[in-house]
Design brief:
Layout: E1 4-5, E2 8-10, E3 26-28, E4 33-36, E5 39-41, E6 44-45, E7 57-61, E8 66-70, E9 73-75, E10 78-79, E11 86-90, E12 96-100, E13 103-105, E14 120-123, E15 127-131, E16 134-136, E17 139-140, E18 147-150, E19 154-158, E20 161-163, E21 166-167, E22 174-177
Parallel strand pairs: 1-4, 2-5, 3-7, 4-8, 5-9, 6-10, 7-11, 8-12, 9-13, 11-14, 12-15, 13-16, 14-18, 15-19, 16-20, 17-21, 18-22
């Protein structure tokens, strides 16, 4: 079990992360994981080898059962593919992601927009719960200006605010794809 609590990541440019160009600041494959009280700012995750998922955070693998991401600030971060700020991918199609009290703010211009999920890309979970979150000035080339979800059975958004989010194709705020 990994715990990431109370750190401050600022002004990071990560053109070549260690693991497959995913997770500009943090890349994790873990079972239960709390990520809390973090400040991510000014990350740019470049697409060097065809991967650029989760500008600040990427949680991937088969073991995600109950991930908690709470009370974090994400500002001016981008990745070129999935999840401008964070990408959550679980290949086992199980587990729950609980997202509480997070603030996402970015000003993406030109081609510096992710393909899917301006803030979050979520795939392969039983459920995703998002509460008390702010999504501001997020943009994508294709789907989910703020959030893009695929292959996730249940989602719940409670007391979330979406402002100035845009998608080039579908879901200016949220894009859900059940396939």
């Amino acid at each position: 079990t990994a715990n990431v609590l109370g750190n401050h990541f600022t002004s990071l440019i990560c053109p070549n992360p260690v693991v497959g160009n995913d997770g500009g600041s943090i890349y994790i494959t873990s079972e239960d994981l709390p990520v809390a009280n973090l400040f991510f700012e000014a990350n740019t995750l470049e697409d060097i080898h065809g991967f650029s998922n989760g500008g600040a955070l990427n949680i991937a693998g088969k073991g995600i059962q109950n991930a908690l991401v709470s009370n974090n600030t994400w500002k001016n971060i981008t990745a070129r593919n999935y999840g401008g700020m964070a990408c959550f991918y679980n290949s086992s199609l199980t587990g729950t992601l609980n997202f509480t009290e997070n603030t996402f703010e970015i000003a993406q211009t030109g081609n510096e927009k992710p393909v899917k999920g301006g803030a979050l890309y979520v795939s392969g979970l039983d459920s995703m719960n998002c509460s008390d979150a702010w999504f501001t000035d997020l943009k994508t080339l294709e789907n989910g200006g703020a959030v893009s979800m695929e292959n996730t059975i249940w989602s719940d958004f409670n007391q979330c605010v979406f402002r100035n989010c845009e998608a080039g194709m579908t879901g200016g705020d949220i894009h859900l794809d059940g396939d």
